[in-house]
Write a structure and sequence with these properties.
Layout (H helix, E strand, L loop, with lengths): L2 H4 L37 E4 L19 H6 L2 E4 L15 H13 L6 E2 L14 E5 L6 H16 L1 H4 L1 E6 L2 E4 L2 E4 L7 E6 L14
Organism: Mycolicibacterium rutilum
Protein name: ARB-07466-like C-terminal domain-containing protein
Pfam families: VldE
Length: about 210
């Protein structure tokens, strides 16, 4: 299955106000996270160990090979596929799975990510949303971790098909941030454009 099948485009929907957790005494809203642009990488080529073994029977002599073939034999590719992440993947769409796997690997501090669940709004039931649970979310370390996850999601917005992220009263989209009554003080809510349901043959890359 090609990478294009994994990242097939889907219609973009809005989830403003979705999955808002209300408290009797809402915490103060945070300043929007500032995002620094980075370019994710999917494949890596590294130098392979030099072989001291001679050619086996029936093997062509390396001395007769073109220089480019000899040079290529000194390199190997490294598997850049992502392992299964913290979110249960049953019912998630492909871009949501990619976001879950990438966040799980990038932030080993995260031990729980919610995915598909019953909800009045369609984002979670349709496999379009994740709840990245933050350890000690009201502590300075927890707030910093949530900020880092929002920044990471926004930097990878195109790759994840990111529609929005919500954290500590701020609603983020690839186009900007908006403060005001959005809740989500114990987890980072992430919504993707989905990309369709997996067939089982997908490979998710770093």
């Amino acid at each position: 299955m090609g990478v294009a099948a994994v990242i097939a485009p889907a219609a973009v929907f809005f989830a403003v106000g979705g999955d808002v957790h209300l408290t009797a005494r809402p915490a103060p809203e945070s300043e929007p996270v500032i995002v620094e642009d980075t370019t994710p990488c999917c494949m890596e080529i590294v130098a392979a160990a030099a072989s001291t073994a001679g050619p086996s029977i029936g093997q062509a002599s390396l001395a007769a090979a073109p220089d480019r073939m000899v040079a290529a034999s000194r390199y190997r590719t490294v598997d850049r596929s992502l392992p299964v992440g913290m979110a249960p993947e049953n019912g998630l769409q492909v871009k949501t799975i990619l976001a879950s796997r990438a966040i799980s690997e990038a932030f080993p501090e995260i031990s729980s990510i919610g995915g598909v669940r019953a909800d009045a709004l369609r984002w979670h039931p349709n496999g379009l949303a994740l709840d990245v649970m933050i350890p000690n979310p009201s502590s300075s370390a927890g707030i910093a971790l949530g900020n880092e996850i929002v920044s990471y999601a926004l930097r990878n917005a195109k790759r994840f098909g990111l529609q929005d992220a919500i954290w500590r009263g701020v609603y983020y989209t690839p186009g900007g941030a908006q403060r005001g009554g959005y809740g989500h003080y114990d987890h980072v809510h992430i919504t993707t454009t989905g990309g369709g349901y997996p067939t089982g043959n997908e490979i998710y890359f770093r």
